[in-house]
UniProtKB/TrEMBL annotation:
Domain annotation Cobalamin adenosyltransferase-like: ranges: 7-174
Main localization (coarse): cytoplasm
Name of the protein described by the UniProt record: Corrinoid adenosyltransferase
Origin species: Sagittula marina
Gene3D superfamilies the UniProt entry points to: Cobalamin adenosyltransferase-like
C-alpha cells in the first residue's frame, strides 16, 4: 500500500533520487529517464482519455495502470535478487503483452489495409493517440538503451514495443475505423 503524507522531501535537492530499492542515482540516470518517460506517457494517455469513450476509454484506463506497473518495474534494479527478496518487486509479465496483441488484432480486423503512411490527425482522439505512440517509442528506445548497460525485464521492453503499435491501430479506430485517416502524399508540396 502506498501512503503519501508529505509530497516534498528535499532529498532530491542535490540532483539525485532514490530507485525502488533505495539506491540513490543522478536524476538523469538512464533508469530514471526510462521510467520517467513511461510516466510522461501515462500523462499523455490521461489527456487522450478526455476525448475517449466506452471501450476505448476502458482500454486506455487499463494501459494507464499498466504504465504504473512498468514504472515500478523499471525503477527497481537487481532483477537477480528478486527471488530472495522478502517483498518481490512488481514486474511486467507476458500476459500484459499478449493482451495488447489481442486488442491490436481485434481493432485491426475492421480496418482497411493502408496504402500510405498516416499523418497524425483526423480526430482529436487520433491526434492524442499519435502523441502517445511517439512517446511510447521514446520510452522504448530509452529502455533498450538501459538494457544495454543494466539488467532489465525483457517483458517491459516488449510491452512498450507492442504499446506503440496499439496506439497506432487505436488512432485509426478513432478516425472512424480509418475513414478519416490523413494520408501522407509523398512530395505533395514540391
Amino acid at each position: 500500500m502506498v501512503v503519501l503524507n508529505k509530497i516534498y522531501t528535499r532529498t532530491g535537492d542535490a540532483g539525485d533520487t532514490a530507485l525502488g530499492n533505495g539506491t540513490r542515482v543522478k536524476k538523469y540516470d538512464a533508469r530514471v529517464e526510462a521510467y520517467g518517460t513511461s510516466d510522461e506517457l501515462n500523462s499523455f494517455v490521461g489527456v487522450a482519455r478526455l476525448a475517449a469513450e466506452g471501450d476505448m476509454d476502458d482500454a486506455l484506463a487499463r494501459i494507464q495502470n499498466d504504465l504504473f506497473d512498468l514504472g515500478a518495474d523499471l525503477c527497481r534494479p537487481d532483477m537477480a535478487k528478486d527471488a530472495e527478496s522478502e517483498y518481490p518487486p512488481l514486474r511486467m509479465v507476458e500476459a500484459q503483452v499478449e493482451r495488447l496483441e489481442a486488442e491490436i488484432d481485434a481493432m485491426n480486423a475492421d480496418l482497411a489495409p493502408l496504402r500510405s503512411f498516416v499523418l497524425p490527425g483526423g480526430s482529436a482522439l487520433s491526434a492524442h493517440l499519435h502523441v502517445c505512440r511517439t512517446v511510447a517509442r521514446r520510452a522504448e528506445r530509452l529502455s533498450v538503451e538501459l538494457a544495454s548497460e543494466a539488467d532489465i525485464n525483457a517483458a517491459a521492453v516488449k510491452y512498450l514495443n507492442r504499446l506503440s503499435d496499439w496506439f497506432f491501430v487505436a488512432s485509426r479506430v478513432a478516425n472512424s475505423n480509418g475513414a478519416q485517416d490523413v494520408l501522407w502524399v509523398p512530395g505533395a508540396n514540391r
